[in-house]
DNA sequence: TTGAAAGCGATACCAC
DNA sequence: GTGGTATCGCTTTCAA
């Protein structure tokens, strides 16, 4: 039935060396003479041997780490998430990790899933579920599993987090619209309890206030979805048609808002997004937006990951990445 | 430094039973008396014990299977992929598997990545890299790793595959356009060597021929991207403005084509997509498209996965799922 | 039903 | 540098 598996012992025997020698040829940091190395590799090749990562991880679970990382994500329907996810997993793979995916829909899942991941001795978890309740975060903290948060931080700052400077993003948007001479502005929120949405709103409002401009009309939503952006713009068209410019908490909302305006209004107000998803550059949208520098975010996540794993002291800090305005 | 890990032995000692008893309480198929079960669970709870999946998998690698599955994906920039991916991983999680992700950009990566996954003793690999060369597929076959292909099959039909009936999809599109009385049609391809694109084209052309309609103008592309759809439509506008209807190999292409038409032409030809990504239902597009029933695809993949794992005989079959036209 | 003991496959520590 | 060997945490025969 099941094929006999080739073990390091088989290779050792075949090559006429000890199992230790085989092990050493496959662990970078160890020293083997070129001669034995050759013999081992030849034998391995002849037998079709590949080291068993499970066994390896079992032995040095505790010391070296298993080589796996849990990646917790949600909201794949928002175009920003897959974009981020793709880059993140590629970076992890390149760094030699193999990502175990935890796709979360409801808040309640995440704790269970992390338990499962932890059972697999993942070295750490990278949590990018933007809309993760504080309660859920707390429970994850109890897990004693090294974590890096992405796109959110925990209130008590007990966990490393990497996120963009959302307030600054809001300010950029405010400046852009204000510089264009617009004064009656609106903000379309994402999830009300979402950190990103809240901070972007704060930055936007604060900057307008600094410039002595009227506070924007704020339209609240329950999510970051296209449809919410669409409906929000409908409300603006109907109840605040005088609005001269709109800042949206994310690109997906902005796409909805743009379409609502195009299809249901003759007026053309500038709509500013936030994220700079690849879609923002589609000719059909050409959305002016505030870019989250995803490559940098990912790079920083990997840096923080290493810090957390090395038990570095100042690891529990939040790193903010500067966004930049992309005018289209 | 590292926290002392709680092992089954600790629990056994604490509960006053043997390690075997602990093991048995945690493996469904085994029998334990209610009394000992209670003691074990109480002890586990008191100590905060969770079985080590690594060790468990190591022991019964070979017999029971590890509980992990490799998921190979690519092209996260095409909105269909994340959509599929999200549902697939959720289904896997629900079935008790934990997906190890392999995000592939180039063809060459995949073999290496699968080797890595295999080292982790994944039970099987689900390969949804639509644009995977035949050569790469062959090399994967040599791996002796149980596989399920998604969205493509291998020519020699040695591997189970689940994909939608793309030819039928093409026929649906042809009928829809022909029923509308249109005769001068065009087809915008995706990756020329992509199976989905080829089959959709074949079905489309075949059906037109059956109905004695002229063969469509075919515009070839190197990928399934929005930009390619946009450029393709530009070419139609410039060189074949008389075209009355367009069928695109996927939704993303159709979005590009629609936008090109909207922005650069006064004419309005029906544009038909293929996939039915969530975006197709956006008010900005309201794309009539041929739906790939993703839920069914995923369900079938899990069925085939079980078959492959049980070493079932007829497992090497291709299952085709019927797509359906969604008129918007 | 239960416990004792033999592995699963690889690594690290210890002598040589 | 190299080879023996205990060990990682769990499961599973085999007797009792």
Automatic annotation (TrEMBL), chains A, B:
InterPro entries: HTH_LacI, Lambda_DNA-bd_dom_sf, Peripla_BP/Lac1_sug-bd_dom, Peripla_BP_I. CDD domains: HTH_LacI (cd01392), PBP1_LacI-like (cd06278). The keyword Cell wall biogenesis/degradation does not apply. Pfam families: LacI, Peripla_BP_1. Keywords: DNA-binding, Transcription, Transcription regulation. GO terms for molecular function: DNA-binding transcription factor activity; transcription cis-regulatory region binding. Residues 6-60 form the HTH lacI-type domain. This is Substrate-binding domain-containing protein. It comes from Affinibrenneria salicis.
